[in-house]
Amino acid sequence: MTATTAAPTASNNITHNAFFIGGQWRAPEGSGRISVISPNSGQQIGEVPDGVEADIDAAVAAARAAFDDPSAWSGLPASERAAALIRLADEIDSRKEQFAALVSAQNGMPITVASQLEAVYPATLLRYYAGLIAAQTDDIREGMFGGVVEVRREPIGVVGAIVPWNFPQTLAAFKYAPALAAGCTLVIKPSPETVLDAYLLAEAVEAAGLPAGVVNIVPGGRETGAHLVSHPNIDKVAFTGSTAAGQKIAETCGRLLRPVTLELGGKSATIVLDDAELDLATIGNDLFVATLANNGQTCFLGTRVLAPKSRYDEVVDVLSAFAGSMAIGDSLDPGTQIGPMSSARHRERVEGYIAKGRAEGGRITVGGGRPDGLDDGWFVQPTVFAGIDNNATIAREEIFGPVLSVISYDSDADAVAIANDSDFGLGGTVWSSDADRARSVASRVRTGTIGINRYIPDPVAPFGGVKQSGMGRELGPEGLAAYQNLKSVYR
Ligand code: NAD
Hints:
The protein is of the alpha/beta class. The chain has 2 domains: 3-264 and 469-490, Aldehyde Dehydrogenase, Chain A, domain 1; 269-458, Aldehyde Dehydrogenase, Chain A, domain 2. It is 38% helix and 19% strand. It has 16 helices and 23 strands. The chain has helices at residues 53-68, 78-93, 96-107, 111-118, 121-135, 168-182, 196-208, 222-230, 243-256, 280-291, 312-324, 344-359, 393-396, 412-420, 435-444, 476-481, and strands at residues 14-15, 19-21, 24-26, 33-37, 44-49, 139-142, 148-155, 158-162, 185-189, 215-217, 236-240, 260-263, 269-272, 304-308, 363-366, 383-386, 403-409, 424-425, 429-431, 451-452, 466-467, 470-471, 484-490. Strands 15-16-17-14-13-19-20 form a 7-stranded mixed beta sheet, sandwiched between helices. A 6-stranded mixed beta sheet has the order 10-9-8-11-12-22, sandwiched between helices. Strands 1-5-4 form a 3-stranded mixed beta sheet, with no helix packed on it. The longest helix has 16 residues, at 53-68. The chain is globular and about 65 Å long. Bound molecules: nicotinamide-adenine-dinucleotide (NAD). Residues 162-167, 171, 189, 191, 221-222, 225-226, 229, 240-242, 245, 248-249, 263-266, 299, 398, 400, 426, 465, 469-470 line the site of nicotinamide-adenine-dinucleotide. GO terms for molecular function: oxidoreductase activity, acting on the aldehyde or oxo group of donors, NAD or NADP as acceptor. InterPro entries: Ald_DH/histidinol_DH, Ald_DH_C, Ald_DH_CS_GLU, Ald_DH_N, Aldehyde_DH_dom. The active site is at residue 263. This is Aldehyde dehydrogenase.
């Protein structure tokens, strides 16, 4: 292993030559390499081995052995596991800046966003789940037919955790923090686009002294992920990624009757009620998190903006001014609000949707092209479409870029109907100065989460989607329960 630098550039190309398996750095079984390309410059900034099926087999074997020895992890008193989770949180904290810089350099996340989320969320979750598991008490119930029943919460086993590139550290922690608290062991497969931060996580796990095999990390592509999903020695799959991949994974898990959590795509609604505050000086930050954060590459963003007919033009003007004011630039520059798309292929996809929006009659009020003077990276201007209805392709499909569509509605009931007229149901927001009215509208939107005048997934509350946005929940006590089997002991 080479030392990890804070902000990789083409001149300090970071290379790794092994995988973290069974508490050791193990040589890869294959000869392929994953090349990490900077979305800011198009230059290579890192290179790691590409995991193959035999690497997954070794990682699963290590995780299985660690799980099956109750003295290693799964059978430890909860307080001991909780202490280990806190140690890992401390090790992650001590690498905060490196995590933020590595993620930003690989996927184009603005460094300010990476510093506030990727560098902070994982340790926060570890501490939260350490507290929950340490506080979990025996559940003894008076039996109705005499005797008592002990309801045990046992760790579900070996977990295959598959993570996307957009929030690689946070979304890995959504899985490993509750899984480790419960007593599970894991094989984590990061996305090929974001592998360097996964090595930093492995270093933190090693430094925290977690027992060998409890956490194993093998970067690789979709075949490697598919092998992990169907591996006979896995007990549960936790997946975040696209709906298309989630459907394949669900099919495999259905055939194997294997528990699976699926956090998939979204096309959420930002519902602006007619009494909403629209002053950007007041709402700008919250609006950014809810609609454009991470260059639009965030699953829960409300990219369908529903505006009342009476204020339609005003909403379009405010959003256009907002999107047009964004500082676009190198993701590692602290002044940047919108960085590049994660890959050249992904930018093509986003630009394809912009072309489609135009072809279907949408009117671009701001953006629509590439920013001047940023020709080396994969940049797209934040773009607002007006004159779009909810049947347009760009209103129905997930774009995963900084593209907002403003759709007009007649009444609150109409807004709810349009919000619900979607294949997805992950997030969304309601903007209003009347709390009761906003809550009433929010309660009628079919979605796993929703915000009122703000949106941020909170560790204490279940996060996930309905319809094609997925199945199951992460975070909160429910996220811990997803890694526990219930066993009733009749005594
Ligand atoms: P992706 O589905 O292409 O890949 C996600 C991960 O799954 C990667 O590690 C990939 O290698 C792996 N993978 C792909 N196909 C697989 C298969 N058949 N079997 C096993 N593993 C497979 O998604 P992406 O492009 O990396 O991420 C973007 C998508 O993730 C978007 O659709 C976004 O909405 C979604 N996402 C959802 C949430 C959520 O919590 N709901 C959060 C973030 C991202």
